Structure to design on (451 residues):
């Protein structure tokens, strides 16, 4: 076992060393070589070290180098050194984080990181939380708590009686709501289309004056960090109006909520701490390995009411039982990496990470503007949308940037126009990475079609 793990550490370290200079998207030939991993299931056991060698030799070249500093697609962080190392430790521990009795360390670390997160992000002390895979499930978990609580207040028990014949819940979202929140609503039986969509401004922010009538059976979903522009809904004003009517406010803060760790960017979240629940990703800007997010709910009993289960053989201990706060029972110990990431960076390190990435996003925007291209959004955080001219020009640049391999950016549509999206979310991104990527983008945009 020891030899195998040391060999694997060597291979992983080499992979991460080489990533600084390798192309970001894998070559099609390397993807084609993945066939070497296929074939019929072996009839007999193989040597574990040979298995690892196959995985590294054929798997590593076909990875996308998102752990490096020049990946700007979607919103994808890397893995902080301490978080990656903790992930290996957690792999060795192989703990089931469902119950205290199954893993005292996993249960304790969840308690510790929840207290740290609540403090760092300016959320109510004593909040409850479920540790889940990503913001899709964090939205699901928090919205389940909202559904249960609003229906309980109306005298209905959703867990026992389902939604057949239940008093209707009115769901309000901004027109720029993230699709994952709509998916969460659909999984909860609240419906993707049965929502009121509130018109948004030019940056994608919900216009508070356009909110519909709210009441004690309304669930208002606010967004902190638009996936295209990075813009924030005006949470303070929305919370004040919603709470005056007895409504529940949920904040989808997937990546944007990490702005709270920086004194400079925290004002974007003014008033968001007054909400009732929050979905926050950790595999994005906290830079822990996939997969990891947290659903935080102001009152622990609200999320517990939606998520708890019991059986004779499952013996609850005293205090917080992790499985009462998340959809799953058995699951991996995500608190381990969260603890290591926060413990290693500390408050100032986290603020530096967010501020550096935001500064780098501004650098991208300034340089691309100076080179004659159009930045389509107000760069308030870490997201930049760029047009390189006509629809075809922009689509051509995106495709050629991806092919070139220096960096990787995806595409989107913003106000009916094609745009390249740049998301700066990684601890590993240096200013040199930004300069190298800018040089490639500008060279590609100026040279016209390769074909
Ligand atoms: C605002 C917002 N909500 C939700 C999600 C979904 O997150 P996940 O992919 O972790 O489920 C994203 C992903 O980018 C997002 O930006």
């Amino acid at each position: 076992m020891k030899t195998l793990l040391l060999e694997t550490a060597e291979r992983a370290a080499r992979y991460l060393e080489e990533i600084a200079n390798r192309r970001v998207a894998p070559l099609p030939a390397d993807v084609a070589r993945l066939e070497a991993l296929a074939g019929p299931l072996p009839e007999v056991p193989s040597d574990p070290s040979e298995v690892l060698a196959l995985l590294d030799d054929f798997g590593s070249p076909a990875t996308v180098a998102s752990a490096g500093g020049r990946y700007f697609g979607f919103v994808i962080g890397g893995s902080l050194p301490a978080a990656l190392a903790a992930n290996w430790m957690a792999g060795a521990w192989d703990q089931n984080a469902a119950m205290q009795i199954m893993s005292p360390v996993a249960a304790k670390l969840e308690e510790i990181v929840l207290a740290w997160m609540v403090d760092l992000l300016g959320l109510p002390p004593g909040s409850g939380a479920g540790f889940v895979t990503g913001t899709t499930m964090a939205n699901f978990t928090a919205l389940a708590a909202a559904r249960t609580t609003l229906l309980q207040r109306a005298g209905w028990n959703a867990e026992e009686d389902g939604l057949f014949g239940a008093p209707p819940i009115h769901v309000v979202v901004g027109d720029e709501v993230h699709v994952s929140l709509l998916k969460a609503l659909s999984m909860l039986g609240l419906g993707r289309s049965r929502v009121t969509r509130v018109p948004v401004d030019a940056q994608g922010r919900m216009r508070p004056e356009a909110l519909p009538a709210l009441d004690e059976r309304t669930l208002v979903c606010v967004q902190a960090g638009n996936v295209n522009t990075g813009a924030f809904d005006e949470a303070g004003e929305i919370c004040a109006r919603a709470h005056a009517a007895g409504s529940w406010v949920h904040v989808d803060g997937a990546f944007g909520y990490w702005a709270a760790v920086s004194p400079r960017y925290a004002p974007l979240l003014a008033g968001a701490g007054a909400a009732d629940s929050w979905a926050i990703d950790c595999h994005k800007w906290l830079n822990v390995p996939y997969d990891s997010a947290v659903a935080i709910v102001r009152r622990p009993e609200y999320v517990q009411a939606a998520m708890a289960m019991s059986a004779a053989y499952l013996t609850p201990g005293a205090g917080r039982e992790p499985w009462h706060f998340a959809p799953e029972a058995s699951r991996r110990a995500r608190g381990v990496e969260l603890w290591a990431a926060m413990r290693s960076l500390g408050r100032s390190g986290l603020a530096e990470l967010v501020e550096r990435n935001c500064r780098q996003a501004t650098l991208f925007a300034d340089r691309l503007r100076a080179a004659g291209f159009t930045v389509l959004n107000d760069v308030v955080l870490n997201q930049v949308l760029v047009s390189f001219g006509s629809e075809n020009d922009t689509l051509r640049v995106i495709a050629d940037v991806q092919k070139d391999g220096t960096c990787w950016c995806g595409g989107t549509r913003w106000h009916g126009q094609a745009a390249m999206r740049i998301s700066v979310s990684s601890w590993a991104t240096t200013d040199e990475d930004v300069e190298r990527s800018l040089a490639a983008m500008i060279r590609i945009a100026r040279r016209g079609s390769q074909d």
Notes: The chain is about 40% helix and 10% strand. The two ends are 51 Å apart (CA to CA). Residues 335-370 form the longest helix (36 residues). The first strand starts at residue 128 and ends at 132.
